[in-house]
Every structure is written in C-alpha cells, then in structure tokens.
C-alpha cells in the first residue's frame, strides 16, 4: 500500500514539476516567489465564495490578535481584486501553483507557523511540503460537496496519508465531518463549527443604505416587494409564472435577479411576454417588474423585500444562499434542489421562516399568503430572526481553535 501511494504521489509530483516550466510564461504570477516576509498564518482560499469565509475569519483573528502577521492567497482574479479593495489586514497574493519548486519557495519565504486551508483547498504538494516542515495544517469552513466528495474518495490512497496528519478540521456540517473522517482525518480532530461566511452578512447589512436603494427603485409607501434572487438558466418560466400569479395584487413589485448577467435577455423576453413593462435596474427604471442587470445589489435588495424566492433551486443546480434574505428577516421560498445549502435549508424550514415548494404554482400560493396576511408574514420573520442566531458565530469559534494551536 505504501509503495503504491508513493508511486501515485511521485507521478503527481513529476507531472506538476513539468507543468511548472510549461505554465510559467502564461501564469507568471502563480509561479514567482511571493514578496512577503515571515508570517504567523498563511490562509489559502479559492474564489470569491471562499474569500467570504476567509474575511470573516480574519476579522475574528485580528479582533483578538491585532499584531498577527497573515498572508492570504487566492486562486481567481475576481477574488484577488475584491480582497485587495476591501483591505483585510493581510497581505494578498495569487495562490502559488501546486508544483514542488513553487510550493517549496513559497514556504521558505513565508515560513508560516500554520497553514489554514479554506473549505476544500487540498493540494498534494502543498500539504506534503508543509507537513514535512512541521507546519501545522488546518482546514476551516470545511466542506465536501456531493460533487467533490466522490473525486476525493477515489483518490483517498493519495490523500489519506496527508489528511491523517492534519492538526484540525472545522467542518460546516455533520455530513461534512463524516466525509472528512471517511477520507482519513482522525475523528478527534474534526469538529462541526458552522459556516463562517454568514458572520459577514450581519456586518454587510449594517452598511447597506436602504433609503438610497429604495429611492433608486422608486418605491412608494406601502408597496410590497418580492425578490427572485440568483435565478439560473431554466428558471425563466418560474419568473414568468410568478409574475403572472401575483399580477392581480395591487401595490406589489417584482424584482428579478438572474445569477449570471448573460441570462438577462432570456429573462427579459420571458417577462415582457406578459404585457407588463419590464425595467432595468441599471437605468433606474421604476417598472412594476424590475430586472437586476448589475452585479452586487442583490443582498441590499433583499433588505427591501416583503418575501423572497431563492433561485437555482427549481432546477437541479443545488440552490443559492438562503441565509442572505434570512438575515433581513425576509420570509423565503425555495425549490426542491437545495443540495448545496442542505443544512441551512433544513434549519430555516425547522424554525418556520422558510417554505419549500415543488414548482411555480405552490410558490405563488405561499407568496400570496405572505403578501396578503401580515400576521403570517410577521410570524415567519420573527422565526427567522430567532433561528438565525444558531447559524452565526462560526468565525469566532474557528479563531479560538486556531489561536489555541498557534
């Protein structure tokens, strides 16, 4: 077994070493040494989604240890740009390529006491070289999705010898904990601490100017707003049917926010077929149906909502984040496909602030009740606000564990 694992890792190491030379002209920023001195922590994440967890963790760490020296590396350009704009109290760099030379140079330059991997950033050379140097390696916001877990399981002979030596894994849910254990992490080193991303939402809520946003939509006193957030391809029909089903409710506005801007024409075509004017958010138009054609405003728009519909859940895409409207106390509906947010959906259903619908007809029935029955809406909102406390505080728990290990 050991010789087989060594052979597999040897193949990976050789292939990644050869690729270092081939990729250097195309991705020089990923293969050059980092210009950073010795640090206490190296936090490594992937894209914008993982950056949110890293940012929440950084805030919690810096609140306790302001002098902590931290480097944050990220895989995508969008995440890098966002991290640099936000000023996170850490040096920010592109993630190094997982080649033996690049990883070795990076570790020799940074000399971190601890390497913190966000969610599922498990790279063989990075893990092997860090562990060989006696650096503590931890995972925070640990998550193994239905799609990624089978791939790691198929490669467990390669990963298990590395994962057995991790100092700590903080998992988002019990399901994730079980999956990390199945890959070889000792059970005593895996703990369910929750999702750190959600702690940022409370801070972001305080920064939203709802008055300015309401003025931009031209909302009148007493108007109700239904936000259909992060709709995916295939949910154009859902948007159209919900708009038609709520058309008879006077004083109700519909805000439709596709997940990807390239889907705007398809959603606009579907909605304009109803004969109701469709406005564009970017043009400050005040139509009864408004299409959000900008990246960024959705979270604030949830703050104006009377009720919300979570996209990506009425088609098999795993759903989008239901906690974003929940932090505003906005009752919400999602469809049958919430695999990417299974624990959050279950919790919100249990506390009573969310409903799960199988299709547009059921969604319309739920929305009409919340729009026409203030007491039902108030009960759902109150339940969300009380239940939300159980989803918050993960970043502080992660910070406590990491500082204890430093």
Question: What is this entry, summarized?
Answer:
By secondary structure, this protein is an alpha/beta fold.
Rg estimate, integer Å: 23 Å
Q: What's the shape?
A: elongated
Q: How many structural domains?
A: 2
**Strand proportion:** 15-25%
Fraction in helix: 40-55%
Tell me the name of the CATH homologous superfamily of the largest domain: 3-Deoxy-D-manno-octulosonic-acid transferase, N-terminal domain
Strand order of the largest sheet: 3-2-1-4-5-6-7
Q: What structural category do the secondary elements indicate?
A: alpha/beta
Average pLDDT for all residues: 92
Task: List the total number of helices.
Answer: 19
What is the name of the CATH class of the largest domain?
Answer: Alpha Beta
CATH topology of the largest domain: Rossmann fold
| Low-pLDDT runs | none
Q: What's the multimeric state?
A: single chain
Instruction: Report the strand count.
Output: 14
Distance between the termini: 34 Å
Biggest sheet layout: 7 strands, parallel
User: What is the CATH architecture descriptor of the largest domain?
Assistant: 3-Layer(aba) Sandwich
What does this structure look like?
With 406 residues, the protein is an alpha/beta fold. The protein folds into 2 domains: 2-194, Rossmann fold; 207-391, Rossmann fold (3-Layer(aba) Sandwich), CATH 3.40.50.2000. It is built from 19 helices and 14 strands. It has helices spanning 2-23, 28-31, 48-64, 77-86, 100-110, 124-132, 148-154, 156-163, 174-182, 197-207, 210-217, 236-245, 264-272, 298-302, 323-326, 342-351, 360-372, 374-387, 394-405, and strands spanning 41-44, 70-74, 91-94, 114-118, 136-142, 168-171, 190-192, 224-231, 252-258, 278-280, 289-291, 307-310, 332-334, 354-356. The chain has a 7-stranded parallel sheet with strand order 3-2-1-4-5-6-7, with helices on both faces. Helix 16 links the parallel strand 13 (332-334) and strand 14 (354-356).
């Amino acid at each position: 077994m050991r010789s087989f694992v060594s052979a597999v890792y040897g193949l990976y190491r050789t292939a990644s070493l050869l690729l270092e030379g081939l990729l250097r002209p195309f991705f020089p920023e990923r293969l050059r040494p980092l210009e950073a001195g010795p640090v206490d922590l190296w936090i490594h994440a992937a894209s914008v989604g993982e950056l949110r967890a890293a940012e929440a963790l950084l805030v919690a760490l810096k609140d306790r240890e302001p002098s902590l020296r931290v480097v944050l590396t990220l895989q995508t350009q969008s995440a890098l740009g966002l991290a640099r704009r936000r000023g996170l109290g850490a040096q920010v760099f592109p993630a190094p390529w997982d080649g033996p030379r690049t990883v070795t140079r990076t570790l020799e330059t940074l000399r971190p006491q601890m390497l913190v991997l966000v969610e599922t950033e498990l790279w063989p050379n990075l893990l092997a070289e860090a562990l060989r140097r006696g650096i503590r390696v931890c995972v925070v916001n640990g998550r193994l999705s239905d799609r990624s877990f089978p791939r790691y399981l198929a490669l467990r002979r390669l990963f298990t010898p590395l994962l057995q030596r991790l100092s700590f894994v903080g998992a988002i849910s019990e399901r994730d904990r079980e999956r990390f254990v199945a890959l070889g992490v000792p059970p005593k080193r895996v703990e369910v601490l929750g999702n750190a991303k959600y702690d940022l939402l409370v801070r972001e809520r305080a920064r939203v100017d709802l008055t300015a946003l309401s003025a931009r939509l031209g909302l009148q006193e007493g108007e109700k707003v239904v936000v259909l957030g992060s709709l995916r391809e295939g949910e154009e029909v859902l948007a159209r049917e919900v708009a038609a089903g709520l058309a008879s409710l006077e004083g109700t506005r519909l805000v439709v926010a596709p997940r990807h801007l390239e889907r705007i024409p398809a959603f606009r075509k579907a909605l304009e077929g109803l004969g109701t004017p469709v406005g564009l958010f970017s043009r400050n138009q005040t139509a009864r149906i408004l299409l959000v054609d900008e990246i960024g405003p959705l979270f604030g728009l949830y703050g104006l909502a009377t009720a919300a519909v979570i996209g990506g859940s009425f088609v098999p895409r795993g759903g989008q984040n239901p906690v974003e409207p929940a932090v505003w106390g906005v009752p919400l509906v999602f469809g049958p496909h919430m695999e990417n947010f299974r624990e959050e959906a279950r919790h919100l259903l249990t506390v009573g602030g969310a409903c799960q619908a199988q299709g547009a007809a059921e969604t319309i029935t739920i929305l009409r009740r919340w729009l026409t029955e203030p007491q039902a809406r108030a009960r759902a909102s109150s339940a969300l606000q009380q239940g939300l406390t159980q989803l918050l505080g993960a970043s502080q728990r992660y910070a406590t564990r990491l500082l204890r290990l430093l």
